[in-house]
Request: fold
Amino acid sequence: MAEIKSAIEIAMERTKNLVMDEKEKKEFAQKDLTDRLRAIERRFLEGIIEPEEFLAEYKNIQAEKSQKRRILVDLLVEEFNASVENERLFQLLEIMGDEAGGGLGDEARLLKSAFQKELEARLSGIKESILGRLSSMGISGSSIEPNVTEWDEWKNALQETGSVCRKRLYEWKDKVWVVSA
Reply:
């Protein structure tokens, strides 16, 4: 009589000689590292963990230091969105810049400052423009406070400013990569 085998036994017999080659192992390790870094990045950006906890978890991830830094900086630069609050994102960029050395932490702080100042300048300019247009239509007074963020001018300015900042972030990222090489 023939032996009856379970589906698991049959599957195990058919796959017992299958193994990952070196390329597959590297790809799997790279994906695993990226996923782990993305997880701690996400928890930090959402305010679940603080900088000290982030650094502890980051240091506990077993991988080459420069590889971890490169992957995380890539993730952070891709995460940048001018239309949302970026305080914690810039905080992580500063941490990674400080870790990389070469003044990159200070450069990240300057990027943040320049981005915020440009947004503030654009916001006040657009607000004045809107108030001027409203005044010319006979709408004026001390209680008039336009909701600037809903106007197309603001959305365009935000997109332009974000584009410039993103370009500078990519340049900064390239410097981190050079230092991490």
User: Anything to note?
Assistant: The chain has one domain: 39-180. The two ends are 64 Å apart (CA to CA). The mean pLDDT is 90. The CA atoms of residues 58 and 105 lie 17 Å apart.
